[in-house]
Design a protein that fits this description.
Length: about 270
């Protein structure tokens, strides 16, 4: 089993590839990478970060991969540095995903009701088209609202999920907050809405979406059902958030997910 994770390298701040690599590898799955950009830190809350777009390397990297006859059982895309890269991801899926391979799109583009720096309406439109090719999409509530063109925030997850289902058969929306709970909302095989909820922890935790998505990808590739993968990934992310609420002083530096990997693996391999 090998996954191709297409995501940025934020050197500091534990998100994207610096989360996907350790989590997916710990699941016992080869995690190959296509870095979309190299940043000194992620863009959430840090100022003065460097940003090197790596699109220019793509054709060279892919040319060599073709000579190796590489194919991936899963392609998992996250933060894409530019609109042009969305076209690249669609092309890479066509050329490098195995016949029964899984294409997972985490449409990373915003949080807290706003788009991240550098993203705009054209990017959202283009991301919608990429989601149409995915087996699973994993937007947070902000990204889900942008994709579905529904005002943020919404508690009407039924409408939200049916709008997203017109893009992708298996939408999974994270970070849906109501009262004291935070939920992951998805659809069962009959198209009926399901929720997996936990107690909300106040505050904003950078990289939580990447911990969830990476664990979900790892669990799916280990043969878990969608529902089990959601539960395992949610429990891992929630435990990491709880721990970080106490242990990580500056939340910009990401979650202490490392301390929870062993528990996650015990459940994954039970
Ligand atoms: O975790 C999402 C993410 C990924 N990559 C970069 C980011 C962010 C969120 O801010 O800035 C570069």
């Amino acid at each position: 089993m090998r996954v191709l994770a297409i995501n940025d390298i934020s050197c500091v701040g534990k998100c994207s590839l610096t989360v996907s690599l350790p989590v997916i590898s710990a699941c016992g799955i080869t995690c190959d990478v296509l870095p979309t950009a190299l940043l000194s830190t992620h863009t959430g809350g840090f100022e003065g970060y460097s940003f090197l777009d790596l699109t220019g390397e793509f054709s060279k990297i892919l040319r060599q991969w073709k000579t190796l006859g590489l194919r991936f059982d899963c392609i998992y895309s996250g933060y894409l540095g530019s609109i042009e890269q969305i076209d690249w991801v669609a092309q890479i899926k066509k050329e490098f995903l195995t016949e029964n391979g899984v294409f997972v799109v985490d449409p990373v583009m915003g949080d807290g009701g706003k788009l991240y720096k550098g993203f705009n309406a054209d990017y959202v439109t283009k991301m919608r088209a990429l989601c149409q090719q995915a087996d699973y999409i994993l937007p947070n509530l902000t990204e889900a609202c942008y994709l579905a063109d529904i005002p943020y925030p919404t508690t009407d997850t039924k409408t939200l999920l049916s709008a997203l289902k017109t893009l992708c058969p298996r939408p999974i929306v994270t970070g849906v907050m109501e009262n004291n709970t935070i939920s992951v909302c998805y659809l069962d095989e009959n198209g009926v809405e399901k929720r997996y909820s936990s107690q909300n922890v106040a505050g904003f935790f950078h990289g939580a979406g990447d911990v969830f998505s990476s664990a979900f990808v790892g669990a799916i590739l280990k043969g878990k059902t969608e529902e089990t993968a959601i539960r395992l990934a949610t429990d891992f992310t929630t435990a990491s958030i709880r721990r970080s609420a106490n242990e990580v002083e500056d939340k910009r530096y990401g979650l202490n997910f490392e301390a929870e990997i062993f528990e996650f693996l015990k459940k994954l391999n039970a």
